[in-house]
Request: fold
Amino acid sequence: MATKSKKKPAAKKRLAPARPKIKKSARTSKPAQAAGTESQRVAAILAKLDEAYGNATCELKHENAFQLLISTILSAQCTDVRVNQVAETLYKKYPDAKAFAYATPSELEQDVRPTGFFRNKTKSVMGASKAILEKFGGEVPRTMEEILKLPGVARKTGNVVLGTAFGIASGVVVDTHVLRLSNRLDLSRNEDPKKVEQDLMKIIPQEKWIQFSHQLIWHGRRVCHARKPKCTECNMESLCYAKDKTV
Ligand code: SF4
Reply:
C-alpha cells in the first residue's frame, strides 16, 4: 500500500504593493492623473534614478546640434546603435545642412537605408536641412515653437535636441521607454505620448526634465525591458506596483 506523502506547505507568494485606486472621472474611462504621483513618491523615484543613472545622457553620438537633429530623425523605429553606425560615415559625406539639403535623394536614401523607413526619413532630413538654411540662417532653432516648424520634427525630437544640445528644458522626451515606464511606475495613466508628457511636466521639477528623460530611457534599455523586466535588478522595485512586474 502506498504511503501517503506529506503535503508541502505552499510557498508564500510575495505580493507587490497594491496599485492605489483613485476615482475615475465621470466622463472619461481613465483618470486624468495617476495615483502614484504623490510628491514624496515621485521624489523617491527621482532619487533612485539619480542613484542608478547619475551620468545618463543621450546615446546618439553627435558633434553638434545639427547632427543630433539628423540622428534623432533617423532614430525613429531604429536603435541608437544602428543610427550611430550609419552616422559615422554619413556626417563625413554630408558635413552640414547645405550638404543634406542639396543631396541627391536616391543616394541619400541608400545612405540612410539601414535605419529603416528610409524614403520618409530622407524627405524629413532634406526638408529639415532646407528649412534650417532658408528660415533659420543655417542654425538649428532654439525654441520648441521654431523647431516644430522643421519637417519631420515633432515634440520628441524637439525635446531631445533642445535638451541635449542646448540644455534647454522645454519638455520631457517621451519615447517608447519613457511611455512604458511612466505607465509601469504609475506616473501617468495616459497612453498618448503628448498627454504623458503633460502629466510628467506637472509632477517632475523642470530642472530635472532633461536628466529624467535620459534616466528613464537608460532604465528601459538596461533593466525595465518591455517583455521581461529585470525586476530583481531594479532599485525601484519597492516603489513599483506594475501589473507585469516579474517579482
Ligand atoms: S520593478 Fe520591474 S516593472 Fe517596476 S520599474 Fe523596476 S524593472 Fe520595471
Remarks:
- The pocket of iron/sulfur cluster is lined by residues 184-185, 223-224, 229-231, 234, 236-237, 240, 242, 245 (CB under 6 Å).
- The longest helix spans residues 118-135.
